[in-house]
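ugh ok fine here u go
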Amino acid sequence: MKLFRQFFILSCFMFFTLTSARANERDLTAYPCTVFAPHVCFRLPSATEVLYSVPADVHSFEIRRGERLLATAFVNESRETSLGSYLMKIKVSGWDVAGKINESDGARVIVMLPSRQREPVVEVRIEPSEGLDPDVSGFLSSFRPCSPIKSGGQKCPMDPAFGRSIRDVARDLFSQK
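structure:
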């Protein structure tokens, strides 16, 4: 009986350790998008809201939980972004994804640059914090590339690798000091 109790305690400890390590890793790849922008869509995590504006040729999406700004996504139609100053770069689903840490304020910035020249660049600015917020993790994992359809609108197929790669770049940025 003592051996069973020790095994049970060890099992519970391992379960809580593993689940708490993944608590910051919400995965919304299996859920449909709730916000659509040119050539990309994403899902808002529960208890968050989006503030949308269009200053000039940039679509701006502020992701908030109450009064707190978590992240801002910019969809820039002018394509004036260079990946030269970015720390890490990967290619996923025909997009270049790169990340960097702003030296001025510690914010993490992720850029998604599509391979097609006519498509807009997506930049996500994650507000400075101690670690990757679970809602930001979910928000990043939900990103999907979209393509326009002739009848209007766009088609945004599920692409778990795309969103998870974006979230992984953010997680790697938060592991750097």
